[in-house]
Amino acid sequence: MAKTVRFHEYGGPDVLRVEDAPVGEPGPGEALVRIEAVGLNRAEALFRSGVYIERARSFPARLGAEAAGVIEALGDDTAGFLAGQAVSVIPTFSMNDYGVYAERAVVPVASLIARPDSVDAVEGAAVWMPYLTAYGALAQVGGIRPGDTAVITAASSSVGLAAIQIANRLGAVPIATTRSQSKKDALLKAGAAEVVVTDEEDVTARILDLTGGRGAEFAFDAVAGPGVTALAKAVAPDGILFLYGALSGQPTPYPGFDLGMPALNMRTFLVHETTRDADRLRRAAAFIASGLRDGAFTPTVDRVFALDAIAEAHRHMEGGAQFGKLVAVP
Q1: Residue 172 in contact with residue 148, Cβ under 8 Å?
Q2: CATH number for the domain running over 130-272
Q3: Ranges of CATH 3.40.50.720 domains, the chain
Q4: CA 176 to CA 195: how far, in whole Å?
Q5: Minimal CA–CA distance to 195: which of 171, 206, 115?
Q6: What are residue 30's DSSP bridge partners?
Q7: Does this model's pTM top 0.90?
Q8: Per-residue pLDDT tens digits for 272-294
């Protein structure tokens, strides 16, 4: 048995329960991991609410797909890993099959990345989902190049901050957007070349001005909803508007027809496009590890909560005031 977060019905943060639950033994291709830190992601709040891309198969349901810890035991067919090894757990699996909001959890070894001594547990739980998402979209799918401009919405999120660092690493120009002035200075300090305050500025006009009228080669959008039209107007011909989240909670139009049918590429992106492709994951992990080694990549952690305070952590996450990643520790 291990302390585990579960929910017995859909709802707000208060449906989360910290309970003793059976852990089980690792089967073929699986590892039992003692969890030292859990990375919290918007996907878990959506899963808990019943509005994620998949629904809970049954109740009580577990949740969580990103963590750091130490391998306690291994099943068969787990070559390359050892008991006692420090690892990070990355999101390769469905939360209907595994969940890491717990003191101990069984996970597939395909979701494990060796954690170097220089990366502690909190960092190890905060780095992989954001950087894999940003790199997978901008570099692996988009092919971002030096001199390209990437507009990054909800830039104070963990993924947004990772995207800023990755764009800088690859010689591109990151333009951050945020709703109010309160986070502008922090975003500039985090590496944004420019910051657009969406509650005060004309998003399209400002981006076109910053790019000399060319438009941005990429828009990397976590908000979706009606705002995609303003972004689409500011995307360069043959640029890509990535949608990797839907924070607005509103219907998202396809604006191409209303804008006169420009050469607009608009697509969704999910981190699983990288994490469930062995070759893409190998290359992305090597790129991110190189940035961790030389200090170019540093995950920003907003707050660390106790796992017992997971409902409070979810309320904070849904409040949208954080700057960077939220982490919980058992």
Answers
A1: yes
A2: 3.40.50.720
A3: 130-272
A4: 5
A5: 206
A6: 108
A7: yes
A8: 999 999 999 999 999 999 999 99
